[in-house]
Design goal:
Blueprint lengths: L1 H28 L12 E5 L7 E6 L2 E6 L3 E2 L2 H12 L6 E3 H6 L14 E6 L4 E9 L5 E6 L4 E6 H7 L3 H4 L14 E7 L11 E9 L2 E6 L3 E2 L2 H11 L24 E6 L4 E9 L5 E6 L6 E4 L9 H4 L13 E8 L2 E7 L5 E6 L5 E5 L2 H13 L4 E4 L16 E7 L4 E12 L2 E8 L5 E5 L1 H5 L4 H4 L3 E4 L4 E10 L5 E6 L6 H5 L3 H15 E3 L2 E2 L8 E4 L2 E4 L2 E9 L6 E9 L9 E4 L6 E2 L2 H11 L6 H6 L11
Helix pairs in contact: 12-13
Length: 629
Amino acid sequence: MRFRLTILLLFANIALFVSLWFLERDDSDALAPAADTVPFTVLEISGKGIDKPRVLKFENNRWRITAPINWPANLFAVNRIRNQIEFLDREASFSLSEVKQHGHTLAEYGLDDPAYTFRYGDGKKMYTLKIGKSAPVGDRIYMLDQSGDKIIVVDKEFVDSLVVDTERLRNQNVFDIPRFEVSAFSIRMPSDESANSIKGNFRRIGLVRDGSKWKFETPIVASADSNEVDAFLGEICQISAKSFPNITAAEAGFDISALPTTVTIEGTNRRQVLLIGGKTKDGTQVYARLEDNPTIFTLDASAFRNLSDIQTTLRDKSLMRFDIEKITSLDISKGGRVVRFSRLKSGVWDVTGEDSKGAVVTYKADAQALAALLLKLSKMRVRQFVSDAPGENVAPYGIVPSSLKITVTQSDQSASGLSIGKAYENGGEKLVYARLDGSDAIFGISGDIAELSDTDILRYRSKIVEFLPEKATITSIKISEKDTGIALFEMSSKNGDFPAQLAKMDERKKVAARRILDSAKIFVVKNYADYPFSDKGLTVGGKLVPWHYTMRVNYDVKGTGSSVPESKSWMFSRRIGGLTQYGSCEKSNVPFLLPEDFIDALFEFTRDSVVSGELEKTLPAAPLKKTSK
């Protein structure tokens, strides 16, 4: 009994499965093939709702619009149409036989003269969808699937997504090559002298990518500014057609007598050439076409207004490329005199040059002055490209063997030299001519670099002339008149603390006293004065400026045992004017100018000293000897 029941159930399941299979098969056969089962290489959109039929074809692995214009298609728009057809919901449908059976006609559904007709396939076998009128219920539209003899009710949104205008169907970019793929590009334009000539010369500007950098290959060989090139390509590769006017090639400026400007872009195994014709009547747009496409279109004229200047706008404007951390020496020469900065193994810089007597001297370099010079060199940019081929005669630019020259040498022994010529003005800006070693080009650069570099070694000598040892403790400090010995300021302490004495002073004198104490530890000068001097004073302009004050500092230096007492002393002139006062250290071999804050601090304790009116009248205002720049 159980065996019979099992056999009965088995046959019932088989019968149900076969019935479902036939039903599914019949329903599938009644519908048109899905878009993904059709060789989809041609798409046609026409109908009374469209001014001109649109034809798209898949050629050379790319979709193109072949009518009403010849233009690359928007892949996103094409794929959207294809996906809409592929996933078309055919459940809400009825067959044509049912329509006829109930006495209805295609005209009732607006399908005898459809608003739109879609044909897709491979060109030989095509499938057709026709769009009729709106259904009476809901936002729905009748559509005839002619291949499956079915009338399908679809959403209006579905139809709107299929009926795409030409503007949305076409690829917006003129160039197919993306910016990141561009390996070379060039601009060809008529030369100035041949602009109105039928047989004239062309001017070509070409750049190629070398790794991550760009360089000019014509009309000169020079480095390009990669950032500027990327920005330029970003604009060019994104230019889009504004309109497609129905005019002849001659009207657009492409007749046989024209010399159109061309923009050529090269990518991976492909190349595109854009021809630029004349301007539209309002001058805001230019006519253009691609070399392999006769379709004429317009572009925004402003995108090409500076094409003739790219030889300078895209050129690398940095001059001296170096790594500051790898510099081992820096030479400044002019008129036979040389100042050389040398980096020691400790990282400290020395400066070597000639003093006013012609003797070679070496000092510790002024780190701040050197840093300012190196920073200026590293940030120096070309302000004007004067000449790329001046020939051997560069003397008119002031570049001669005796002119100012700066040479930077790095640890790999590579050297970069910059010669600086005479000054000139360009558009109200003060520039100087310059040329790099190994290059014939003459540039215009800011004159600031010439002001920062000369061969006066005192300019680069460290402004720290004296400093106490790290473990030194000041025990006393005294400022007095040199000739009389009268003390004008005096403080003392066994352990280097002076709070009790400072507390007795008013606020102005307290600030001044602290400034003097700080200077006693590290004495920084404003600048050096290259004048003859002795224990009596300086000779400035043929007149003696006597030393009038002395400052003596006593201090202890802690050793392994007891402290060792030591001392330092300075001599100062009187204050001359508001900002000038000279000084000299006991062990120094050159006088100097005091910094303004020290002058003010010293004046708080020396203001009652008698000042020679005769000396004030005769002393020159300029404290430094003028040196040639």
